Amino acid sequence: MLFTQNLVNLPYIIISIIIGFTLHEFAHAYVAYKFGDPTAQKMGRLTLNPIAHIDLIGAIFILLAGFGWAKPVPVNRHYFKRPKLAGILVSLAGPVSNLLLAFLGFLGFAILLKLGVPMGTSFDLYPFFQIFIQMNLLLFAFNLIPLPPLDGYRIIEDLVSSRVRAKMAKYEVYGSILFIVLIVTGLSNYTIFPWISTVQSFFIQVFNQLLF
Prior knowledge:
By secondary structure, this protein is mainly alpha-helical. The chain has 8 helices and no strands.
């Protein structure tokens, strides 16, 4: 649980949550708008103002349980000329934004190291970058889980045929129930969280190879 970390780092965690959630939802809104859907823009969601995107309960959950959510961006597929392609790119935009933020965090960490900035000083930014990287990789991996209402599920919806999509819609509620069961029973410790940990470790190794 993120909340059980050193309380000194709590401001870093909160800042990372705000930035990660805000950019994630803004990315969905921006890509949808570029493909011709003005729904999010009309509802004030095409903005970098965190107030438009942060769900307080979802933010608290990520502190206490290691997962959470922001206010979902409304998307109207009827505006898209190529609904499947646009749908996939809109769904991908959120997680990819978190991956890019994680890379920027790693870049900041690497710059501090190469400049020889010491750890443990009054202006030590190493913990912030570590948490920022961890949080955004968590959001990237978590949102790609193929269970509704997550982005991973929406991507699969757009990859399959319309017939299969219609069948998936009938059972979507059961996918949501399965997700809740995994969390409540603790089975998420053997399914969801190992996936998140694996993704985090993989991309940290990738970033390390790119920057060092």
